[in-house]
Every structure is written in C-alpha cells, then in structure tokens.
Write a structure and sequence with these properties.
Layout (H helix, E strand, L loop, with lengths): L13 H6 L16 E6 L5 H12 L5 E6 L4 H13 L7 E4 L4 H6 L8 H4 L8 H6 L1 E2 L2 E2 L2 E4 L4 E5 H6 L10 H10 L4 E2 L6 H13 L22 H15 L12 H9 L5 E4 L2 H12 L4 H5 L1 E4 L17 E5 L6 H11 L2 H11 L12 H6 L3 H10 L9 H11 L10 H13 L6
Parallel strand pairs: 1-2, 1-3, 8-9
Antiparallel strand pairs: 3-11, 4-5, 6-11, 7-9, 7-10
Helix pairs in contact: 9-10, 9-18, 18-19
C-alpha cells in the first residue's frame, strides 16, 4: 500500500505554492489540438487534481492533464490498471503507482522507458528508499512523487512513567515491557491486509534480513528469506506482544485507521503508524472531540529496533508516477511528470494532503516544518526505510504473507518456515492463494 492517504488542509494555500512553479513546469507554446494527458490517480484530498491543473497551465498549451480516480485499495488499483494496460489501452498516459507494483508493471512492458537525460534528474535529492522502490533491473522506471513512512508514536507522560528515554532508539522489547508495566497496549496493524505485509517486512528488514533474496528472479526461482534468523526474530516480536497481553483489543481486525483511533481514545499509549495520525488528532483537538491535553501528550520518534543497537528499517510507502508504454503522447507525459514531482509541488502536496515528500529538500521548507513538527523525524525515517520486496510477483508474495502471518495470536517460531514453504508452492504453481 502507498501508506495511509488520509488528508488534511495545510496552513499555506496550495495555489500560492503551485503558482511559483508555473514558469518552470513546462515549455511549449499555445496551439490548437492540445493533447490531453489522462492521469489515473489514487484517491486523495484533491491535491493531485490541483497539481494537474497547475501543470496544464504551466505548459503554455503543450498539454492538458485530466485526472481519473482509481479505487481506494491498492490491490484494486493494481487490478484496474493491469487489465487496461494488458489490453494496450492508449487512454492511459500517467499513473500514480503504489511502489510495490512498479516492478510488475515494468516487467510486463507497461511502462515507457524514462529518457536517459531524465534518469538522474528524477532521482537527484530523493530519499534512497524511494529511488530503490522506483527502480527495476538497475534503471529508474517511475518518478518518485511522495514517500511515506511509519513512526513510533507514544504518549510522552506514559513513556516517562515507564522510564523510557525517547531521545534514543528504543526496541520492540522495551516497548513491550513498558506497555506491560503501565497496563497499556501497543497499537499495531494485525488485519489480513497489505498492512500485515508492511509490518512483517519492516520487522525482517530491521533484523537484517530480506523477504526475497533474489528479487529479479522468475517465480519458481525466487529465493525467500522468511525461514531465517531475521524471520524468526520478526515472529518473536509478534509472539511477545500477544504473550505479554499488550496487543490491545481487536488486533486481528485492526488497520491503520482503527489503530489511530485506539491511540487517540487512550486504548493504547504506543503505536506504529503513518504520519496522518498527527493531523487527525490535531483536527480532533481543534474540533473539541478530543481533549487538547491528550493531543499535547503526543510524542514521536523513529520506528522501533528489533535488534538493540541496529538501526530499524521502517516501512516505506508513497506513490510513484509512471508513463504508460501505450501513451500516444509520451514526450508530453514526461514533461508533465517533471512538473508533477517538482520540489514546489511536492511541498504543496504535503501541505494540502498530508503526504510526505520524496525530495529531502522539502523538509527544509519553513511552511512544512510549521505544519509538521515531526518533519525531521519523517526525513530520518525515510532515509532508513526499506522498500517492500521488489519483485514482479509481489501480489503472490504479499498475499501469502497475509495468509500465513495472521491471526497474530497464532504466529509462532514456525510461522516463517511455514509461510516460506507456502509462498514457494504458490510461485511454483503447486498451490493457489
């Protein structure tokens, strides 16, 4: 999944920021027969449509961008796009792609090759994890637009009472011990959905492992790293959370929104989640549906470590912009991509829709820092973040993890091996998901 795309209205007008990009977002002169570029976008708060309008104006008649909204779930977005691209649909020019589907889309020949002179331009200053996620077989195949990550959220008063020094990295074990001692819970996403893959991948990567060790291999030849010390360390974290009784209510049905609500309503005092939770709580506090003192007690830091002293590898989400191989206006589409992912537009989009930028320079923007007091923590987390498995068979791998690592209460030391065997059978065509 891209990472939660709940939205917010920033304190700075998107229009004002977008206006500053108009002179740099395109060339060409006004003419008749202006091509229309169809941009298929994930649902948001209107930020992508606003950027489309601004870039259209900035092109001086070189192109006009129209947006079409994809389904809300990443899997449904993939299904719709893949079906149309498989039919050589020329009506798709630009696509907002969840990074996990970039390799599959590229491998199928559905993405237009990024011109050599744009390769470096579209990756300069972008957080490393986002570049990795937009790269397939050594080439950038999509343009990083925004890049999400999960932070560790906590109530400052509870962390202090538990004796945790949140100025230093903390481990999952420290959190479990603190939650148990304070008779509270840790908010995690345990539902059978993409969020489960996000959690498993982050735990394994934080323990120094990889879900897939040879990502460019064909399905039957994929070498899985689930049955490993890192995989067993990941399973141990889940085991300990449930064994200690700090999972909180409904863990097996909790997604990001449910986890945010649990934390907001004092059902958990620690939580791993995307940055949207801050805007949600701020809105609730300002609207009077949440005690302002509770909001003031919100704290944040980087994702928990699995191994003490080894930096964590937080989840990476976001959206990349791809150009369809079947577009009849590829030159114009690549001009539009440069406008869409410009620093000014990434900053404007972060302010309007709450989605973190892929460009590190955006985090130095005073308006961004004012609206996101945790901006530097987000940037640090993105620099540490690890993409989910880069493979053309991501759907099979992710669905297999969701099937075998859920419910959380049944995860044991044998789960990594069992899930690895099951996914291997699926990839070899011996079993169906």
């Amino acid at each position: 999944m891209a990472g939660h795309w709940r939205t917010r209205v920033g304190t700075v007008s998107v229009g004002l920021l977008l206006a500053s990009t108009l002179g740099a977002c395109g060339s060409g002169s006004a003419s008749t027969g202006t091509p229309t570029l169809n941009w298929y976008i994930n649902p948001d708060n209107g930020g992508q449509a606003t950027i489309a309008a601004a870039c259209s104006e900035a092109s001086n008649g070189a192109y006009t961008i129209e947006t079409s909204i994809l389904p809300s779930q990443a899997a449904a977005q993939r299904e719709q796009l893949m079906r149309r691209l498989a039919g050589n649909d020329t009506s798709i020019d630009l696509m907002s792609l969840d990074p996990v589907f970039v390799p599959e889309t590229s491998e199928a020949g559905f993405l237009a090759e990024i011109p050599a002179d744009l390769q470096q331009r579209l990756s300069d200053g972008v957080v490393d994890g986002a570049v990795q996620a937009a790269t397939w077989k050594g080439r950038l195949v999509a343009a990083p637009f925004w890049a999400n990550t999960q932070l560790l959220w906590y109530r400052k008063s509870v962390a202090q009472a538990a004796g945790l020094d949140m100025t230093k990295p903390v481990t999952w074990q420290q959190l479990i011990d603190a939650a148990k001692a304070q008779d509270t819970a840790i908010g995690v996403q345990g539902t059978r959905a993409e969020s489960m893959t996000v959690w498993v991948n982050a735990l394994i990567a934080s323990a120094g492992g990889e879900v897939i060790e040879n990502p460019e291999a064909k399905g039957p030849d994929i070498r899985l790293g689930l049955d490993s010390d890192a995989g067993r360390a990941a399973a141990q974290v889940m085991e300990q959370i449930t064994a200690a009784g700090v999972a909180g209510p409904g863990i097996d049905n909790r997604d990001e929104s449910a986890t945010a609500n649990l934390f907001q309503q004092d059902g958990a005092d620690f939580m791993v989640n995307w940055p949207f939770v801050y805007a949600q709580a701020k809105s609730a506090a300002e609207g009077g549906t949440m005690d302002a003192a509770v909001f003031e007690d919100y704290g944040w830091t980087t994702y928990p470590e699995v191994v003490a002293g080894t930096p964590s590898a937080p989840p990476l989400g976001g959206i990349d912009i791809g150009v369809s191989a079947f577009s009849e206006h590829r030159a114009e589409a690549f001009e539009a991509v440069q406008c869409i992912v410009s620093q000014e537009n990434q900053a404007a989009y972060m302010l309007s829709d709450g989605n973190p930028a892929a460009l590190t320079a955006v985090y130095d923007d005073p308006a961004v820092q004012a609206d996101f007091p945790m901006a530097e923590t987000i940037r640090q987390s993105l620099e540490q973040a690890a993409p989910r498995p880069q493979t053309a068979y991501y759907n099979e791998v992710s669905q297999g993890i969701q099937d075998r690592w859920q419910p959380v209460s049944e995860v044991t030391g044998s789960t990594p091996a069992a899930s690895g065997e099951f996914i291997g059978q699926v990839l070899r065509g011996e079993k169906l998901l």
